[in-house]
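RNA 3'-terminal phosphate cyclase
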Amino acid sequence: MELVRIDGSLGEGGGQILRSALALSAISGRPLEIFNIRAKRRNPGLQHQHLTSVKAAAAVANAEMEGAELGSTRLLFRPRGIKCGEFSFDVGTAGSITLVLQTLLPMLVFAPCPSRVKIRGGTDVPMAPPVDYFTNVVLKALEPMGVRAELRLIRRGHYPRGGGLVELSTAPSDELAAVRWLERGRLLRVAGISHAVNLPRHVAERQAKAAEEALRGLGTPINIEVEHREDGLGPGSAIVLWAETDRGMRIGADALGERGKPAEAVGREAAEKLSAELATGAALDSHMGDMIVLYMALARGRSEVVASRLTSHLETNIFVVEQFLPVKFSYSGKEPVKIAVDGVGFKRGAML
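Tokens:
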């Protein structure tokens, strides 16, 4: 099949290009050459988390590779068919587990049988979706499309020590369904999880209380679970919030604790982010808007969604998808942004 060549410095120029390209290469069966990997970053090339995504994708896609090494700015990836079964991967640092999942999940949706994947690394780290967001927002959004997956949190891992552990279980889908999510709907409640690991319990409680106070003006029930653990390498804390609507939508936001940052500030930050997302009236938050486009392109029929904000990640993901699949996205507006595409109706076991 024809080689797809992608300049990794285009658009936002980060790891998202690599993750999306790996998943689409495996699904489509088209070999990939990506160069200038993460060229716009302070530490360009493949770092530990990116290298784990590459090696994980290669294991699942039975791929041949060139350039899969730390610091490499060029990668050749030749998939030979998606496998299924039991897998285990270790980022080796506090690199994000959920970013590795962004690569693997679309592939496993079209695997020939159920799979179970254990990944070690960071569950709640900067510049990546927290594990609670992935579980309670991402997977819930993908469920109506036909994605069947469960994520079990075994142990949390924070920056800089990592040590987190999750287990992803997937069942294959023959085909994904198109969606039409144009309006958020009426708010039913706000839910969330505020956690602290190897810190006093009151840290998680104060995060939750501050978030609740900041969101009181919404006039909806608020239920934030407080989780206290002492089983991680820690210390660390975070809070993830999501608003649920009468149309089945979930809009999420999060904030991470850090040394010298009061727990109250963490809670308020997450609440303010959620309020900003809700103020747009969009059906999806900005991060979900970035991630949904790959699934929209693979689904059968026309999908239309409204996300809260046009981001560089969204534009970059659209560009990458269009290199692999015979689709053309349209999008209009900035805050919010409407995204539409006629999906290819990819079927498990098919080749494009």
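The chain has a mean pLDDT of 96.
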